[in-house]
Specification:
504 residues, globular
Length: 504
């Protein structure tokens, strides 16, 4: 079917009562998670993975996608009102959003952030359908060697973009790959690293690992800080309407941020965070009055808020079209699909059109819901910032324990949850990035399977991959990502330092 027919079909799927309810639940949870500082969409998605067993694959992905882009909406609320980003992608919004709130323009900042996110979501849906279908068609020519090289490139690129040293990132990737080898080997059926424990034969489940590394670890970190939020600025409904001059300055920034965010989302890495910084830099460079930035420039709110929402749509393209997550949040979306037995990739559009087009259409429906929720009900969401933190954290722990046990009714999963929570908390204090463990755990089995298939095809000759241009190109990109930074540092150290000339 054509792209237009696919979008129309997607709306029939998205507007089904069950999917509509899943979309509403997702965006509502995402908004709440975004408003509350510290939890984040990754932790919320990890905690809610067990709940997807009661849903169809389409409803599950619609709900998880709603949490993902809904958190981008909600994160702007606490950034503007209390100068505390509810989500990492809303850090830039604090710079000018809070300054607008201090000048009595909090309502205008919130309205521009909500409308900018809606514009970015609408344009992102169109980009997802057009680019996703085209990329899936091109990827139909992929074989096991290409997929093996793609997983290698994805892990290497993501490990470098996450920050920190190469050694630290390599340790995290190695831990994730090691966890993925526990249990029954998929091709021969031989048990590996079970140490005689029957429970380990099923392998280390992704649900307790993700919930522990993100959910429980985040709770331990929040409980350790015992921080308090500043006084919340009050916002009246009639103050939500920006002036004509504010609209004139904000609309172009929204459009630029939407396009920039979608393009950044196609690149491996923390797209939502990177896109906000890039958008802020672009708006400051193009502004007629750059001196206002940092003191309440409305472009500094409109551009980044549109960019982070556009990046969520862009990040779904490689996930659905190639089956490879380019960010930690999309890795959890992949986990939700794998749990339901759906493998995203080039065949997803033809084999599961209701899922691909349904999710794309639901993003527009969800963005419309968010626009309605975030403006009239802003007072309700602001009241969440006044909840006692100890009650909120206790409820999340209970949800994590019950949700983990309900997956397999296994005590082993509870021990894994607790262990990964402590490990994740310790890794954060040591400066490691635990998201790489989840990425490696998700991509590891796919890498191993495609590597074995490649060796079977080549009769044991690993060098055959170098004869395939696309495979060779992806491996060269991975090698360049590893080799270029130390090479550039070495070149700077060896470069001669010229002393300035002295004039009499």
């Amino acid at each position: 079917m054509s792209a237009l027919e696919g979008v129309l079909y997607g709306f029939t799927v998205a507007l089904a009562p069950a999917n509509l309810l899943a979309c509403f639940a997702g965006v509502l949870i995402g908004t709440v998670v975004g408003v509350l500082p510290g939890i984040g969409p990754i932790g919320a998605m990890a905690l809610l993975l067990p709940s997807t067993f009661a849903l169809t694959p389409t409803s599950a992905l619609i709900m998880f996608a709603g949490i993902y882009y809904g958190a981008m909406y909600g994160g702007s609320t606490s950034s503007i009102l209390v100068n505390v980003p509810g989500e990492a992608a809303s850090v830039v919004t604090c710079l000018d959003g809070y300054q607008m709130a201090r000048r009595g323009r909090a309502g205008a900042a919130l309205a521009v952030a909500a409308v900018g996110s809606f514009v970015a979501g609408t344009l992102g849906v169109l980009g997802l359908v057009v680019v996703g279908v085209g990329l899936a068609g091109a990827a139909l020519r992929f074989g096991p060697p290409e997929y093996c090289a793609l997983t290698v490139m994805g892990l290497v690129v993501l490990s470098r973009l996450s920050g920190g040293s190469l050694a630290r990132a390599g340790v995290m990737v190695a831990v994730g790959l090691a966890l993925g080898t526990v249990g029954m080997e998929p091709m021969s059926g031989v048990s590996r690293f079970t140490f005689g424990a029957v429970a380990l034969a099923q392998g280390i489940e992704l649900v307790p690992v993700a919930m522990g590394l993100f959910g429980i670890a985040e709770i331990l970190a929040l409980a350790e800080t015992r921080g308090t939020l500043p006084r919340v600025a009050s916002v009246r409904l009639r103050a939500l309407l920006p002036t004509r001059e504010e609209w004139r300055r904000a609309v172009p920034a929204m459009l630029r941020g939407s396009g920039l965010g979608f393009l950044v989302g196609l690149v491996p890495g923390p797209a939502a965070v990177l896109s906000t910084f890039l958008s802020y830099a672009v708006e400051r460079r193009l502004a007629r009055r750059p001196e206002e930035f940092g003191h309440g420039a409305i472009e500094g709110v409109a551009g980044p808020e549109a960019a982070n929402n556009g990046a969520t749509a862009g990040a779904l393209v490689p996930l659905l079209a190639l089956g490879v997550p380019f960010a930690p949040a999309t890795a959890l979306l992949l986990a939700a699909l794998v749990i339901h037995g759906v493998q995203p990739g080039p065949l997803l559009v033809s084999q599961h059109p209701e899922l691909f087009y349904g999710v794309a259409a639901s993003m527009w429906v969800g963005n419309a819901m968010l626009l309605i929720l975030n403006l009239p009900l802003i007072g309700l969401f602001v009241s969440l910032l006044r909840l006692p933190q100890h009650l909120l954290l206790a409820g999340i722990v209970l949800l994590a324990l019950v949700g983990t046990y309900s997956v397999n009714n296994s005590l082993l999963d509870l021990w894994v949850l607790v262990a990964m929570g402590v490990v994740g908390w310790g890794l954060r204090k040591l400066g490691f990035e635990p998201a790489l463990i989840v990425l490696a755990l998700v991509l590891g089995p796919m890498m191993e399977k495609t590597l074995r298939q490649t060796l079977f095809m080549a009769r044991g000759d690993p060098w055959v991959v170098l004869a395939r241009p696309l495979t060779l190109a992806m491996l060269l990109v991975a090698a360049a990502v590893v080799a270029l930074p130390p090479a550039l540092r070495a070149a700077r150290r060896l470069a001669p330092v010229h002393a300035p000339a002295r004039h009499p």
